[in-house]
Amino acid sequence: MTAPPHRLPHPDTPESRARWLHDIGGLSVTEIGWRLGLPPDRVQALLEQRPSVAVPVPDAAEGARLIRRLARRLRDRFGLGTVCIALMPPDQTDPVPMIAAAAARHLVRVLQARSAPGIIGLSHGRTIAAMVAQLPEMRIGQLRFVSLLGELTFGHAAYPHAVMHQIAQRLGAQAFPLPTALYASTPEEAADLLRQPMLRRVAEMALQAEVWVVGIGRGAPENQLHQFGMIGTEDLAEIVGLGAACEILGRFFDAEGRELPSALAARTLAPAAPDFLRRRVIGLAGGTDKVVALHAALAGHLLQDLVTDSRTAVALLDEEEQAEFAALLR
């Protein structure tokens, strides 16, 4: 694994951003206007201007080919089923909006497929919440969403139950939250909680879900679970000592994607690591700070589908391969 690639210099003007999205991303005038917050006629005028700074970029067709080739490279490298790569324009620093939009489109395709799932498990996090906000209003009969883990945070934007309610409204589906904490105090308490009829029903439904949509967190101590106070000092020290590289559904994995045999694992109210391999898991993550975590998840074959941004996708490659996709890093 190599260090994330450096961003290349680029002009930072509305004209250059519009031209980048058009020439590299192949986006339409309307789509560019939505990204930049500009009316279509203003975008058209920017594209018709003579470039103020010479920026050698491939045309739209070449940009699309680069994205497709990069997706194929990642599929082959990590044995993935589907890779969706959201283009990051030069001025964008936060990958979440781009990944959320790509993830929403991918989920709609999954729901509209002939073999569409009847039950979908949903994780937590800012990217998941942003994806739900991007979903169109649809009506899909007999669709059920189930929460894959207990309460995460009091922050409303990523609060699992609020997200479950929102996705149910948008898609006309049923939603089943898991109304308990993510971590129990003891393994015995965790077992007792899962014996309660309501919690047992939701936990069993999570294992019946054909598709899971999950966020991917960093290893401790940077993980948000610690930042939100869900993980105590002793548990944090143990996880750090064991070499945590990534977190999914409150469970921590090493650099090879193997779950860490920690005391916390026995108290986690979420599906166990072997259950990841029995269904289609769609993982959402991006940003150079998530490269290590993504490598771990991919090494452990914990994901079948990946939705990420173009810079992170390039960073997942070996250093000698990254130069091939340098145009996506401007």
UniProtKB/TrEMBL annotation:
Residue ranges of every copy of the Sugar-binding domain listed in the record: 69-317
Entry annotated with the keyword Transcription regulation: yes
Molecular function via GO: carbohydrate binding; DNA binding
Record keywords: DNA-binding, Transcription, Transcription regulation
Pfam families in alphabetical order: Sugar-bind
InterPro entries (UniProt xref): NagB/RpiA_transferase-like (IPR037171), SorC_transcr_regulators (IPR051054), Sugar-bd_dom_put (IPR007324)
Database matches in PANTHER family: TRANSCRIPTIONAL REGULATOR LSRR (PTHR34294:SF1), TRANSCRIPTIONAL REGULATOR-RELATED (PTHR34294)
Family affiliation: Belongs to the SorC transcriptional regulatory family.
Protein name per the record: Transcriptional regulator, DeoR family
Naturally occurring in which organism (per UniProt): Rhodobacter capsulatus (strain ATCC BAA-309 / NBRC 16581 / SB1003)
Taxonomic lineage: Bacteria, Pseudomonadati, Pseudomonadota, Alphaproteobacteria, Rhodobacterales
